[in-house]
Amino acid sequence: MKIIVTGSLGNISKPLAETLVGRGHDVTVISSDPKKQAAIETIGAKPAIGSIADVDFLTDTFKGADAVYAMIPLSFTEPDLGDYLRRMAQNYAKALKAAKTKRTVVMSGWAADLIKSENVENEFDDLDASITIMRPGSFYTNFYQSMDLIKGNGLIGKFLTLRYSGLWALLTGKTGLLMGNYGGEDRIVFVSPKDIADAVAEELLLQPEKTTIRYVGSEEMTCNEAARIIGTAVGKPWLKWILLSDKEMLQGLKMAKVPEKLAKTLVEMQAAMHGGKPLENFHRNNPKMGKVKLADFTKEFAVAYHQK
């Protein structure tokens, strides 16, 4: 099969492309970074350098493809995240329609349907194609964003961090923000990008007659249980995951001069997870859990942590 993979060589797209190439498929990887061209070729895929903001580029790349994996990278520099997501989803929909692509797997999130302003899944409703929406849980790799915070305080999501770094620094990865107004004893489904990639690889080869939704997870636990596993791996078994109120979170974002609309969206996203509805929906769909557990991930996390 001829398969297009978006997302460059990211946490999901790289193992996905490697898996598909290993199974003998003709794989093209879209990247906006020309410097990634050689790395894409090294894994046996064809590079297509361009932007998902360019509908003509997408259309030309999708032509003749049997299937497309479509993902939209999150942007915390956009003042209106919902508008950005809708524009990119519409670009995909226009290109898929023009290219007459018959099979598409769309990356979403496990709480996406609960955030009306950010839910772009319906942008694909009018396509004459087989569509699957992927709703993965919270990525293990998000813990990398909290590495400096763990090093400095032994707390995840600690509000006092605002005093010395600013929440915007956390959001941009300088200090690392994993969670804010969800955490503590909230139960969360965590997921390995490798398990997501395996699930996407399976879906790309299917051809359901109607739009389907697939939830993906690797392990379910409380945030504090996850913090303890991460903490133990790096020599801080007392690590806690501090839960902020919605008001505290919004106040912190405003203090850090995050655009008001974006700040409210971030608070809404995390509040939905704290409320438990995403977990309820996950259980209702009862997907099979992936193979990679958090303890497995902590091995690579600990190496990165001690090298930093």
TrEMBL record:
Q: Name the source organism.
A: Mucilaginibacter corticis
Q: What is the lineage of its organism?
A: Bacteria, Pseudomonadati, Bacteroidota, Sphingobacteriia, Sphingobacteriales
The NAD(P)-binding domain, residue ranges: 7-202
Entries under Gene3D superfamilies matching the protein: NAD(P)-binding Rossmann-like Domain (3.40.50.720), UDP-galactose 4-epimerase, domain 1 (3.90.25.10)
* Protein's name according to its UniProt entry: NAD-dependent dehydratase
Which InterPro entries does this entry report, sorted A to Z?
Ergot_Alk_Oxidoreductase, NAD(P)-bd_dom, NAD(P)-bd_dom_sf
Q: Superkingdom of this entry's organism?
A: Bacteria
Q: Which PANTHER family match?
A: PRESTALK A DIFFERENTIATION PROTEIN A, PTHR43162
